[in-house]
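quick one
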Amino acid sequence: MLNSLKPMPPDPLLGVTEAFRADPSRDKVDLGVGVYRDASGITPIPRAVRAAEQKMLARQNTKAYVGPGGNRQFAAAMEKIALGASHPALRDGRVATLPSTGGTGALRLAAELIRLAGAGAAIKVSDPTWANHVPVMKGAGLETATYPYYDIAGGRVLAAQMLENLAGCAPGSVVLLHGSCHNPTGADPDPGHWAELADLMARRQLVPLVDMAYQGLGRGLDADAAGLRLLCERLPEVLVAVSCSKNFGLYRERVGAVMCVTESAATAAITMGHLQSLARRNYSMPPDHGEAIVAEIASDPALYADWQKELDDMRDRVNGLRKSLATALRSELGSGRFDFIEQQAGMFSMLGLSKAAVERLRSEHHVYTAPDSRLNVAGLSGKEIPAVARAIAAVSRD
Ligand code: LMR
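structure w/ (2S)-2-hydroxybutanedioic acid:
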């Protein structure tokens, strides 16, 4: 049976790490997969995570199942972080939240729920979008289509084209939006565009699925959730996939949640039953280790404050790296071609280089970006910025 299988091509993002590891150069720089690195090149375990994990393990006296709904303290904490503590939907019990295996697991559960609920039209994703969005949606049996999103030459969101495209969607269509720190471009709609988007979606009865993988790494925990919160105010139904990989540094623990803001407490209860059933038939029930760490942080004001402080520091550092890289590129090229890097938010910016230029970055300069020329700014330790800027300038002159 298995002999009939054809070899898989490398994953567009995870394959970059493999290629990087195989490169014997001592000067190589990995700016592929989205992980934050500090000035020593390490992806740190946040202080609050370390402390909470120890507290949690010291208290834990069993590894028996938690149950089909997973860690409820964690679910409540994620709802408050994403929606804001005083969100009316929380007060009214209109939110169904199930912990998931990372943000990707949340997206998969959301996609299966969308299919189950019979949303007829293809789910719309931004052009471009995270390389795994379409595979996750298609893997759950959904069709996908794109809406225009990014002007690569200008380094800005194509807000008017996006709105015009979405205005043509059939009522009930699902639209995948990036809550903040758009992946791969780093360009987010501004508050005015979010307001127009919320109006349009309400008018056309569209349902957003908001991927919130980088909350806190763009402009701040609340600022990064402003678009999502506006949609939740204006629309009867909003689906959200949250992740703790980046903002809690819990990458390998696979911690996330799928969150459904619904019209009534009754619909939320039914939705929760379906989410649990979808998880049950896939892998039975939510994992707990990483969720319990986040729940511990959320229940301890000192740990929570320290986590927020470290997240603020991470964000400030990434913004500093953006500025340094843009400045270095300006002086290499004598032009502001890459100035957008400084204005964008989150971990990534897309350089807009050709495939050949991306290949030359790797083979001649040992600088590894994603194949679409997405560069993980947050992966720079800092000291390699002059060499990276020289390399980008060299391949983008031709
Ligand atoms: C990324 O976009 O690099 C991250 O979200 C990691 C991944 O799983 O692709």
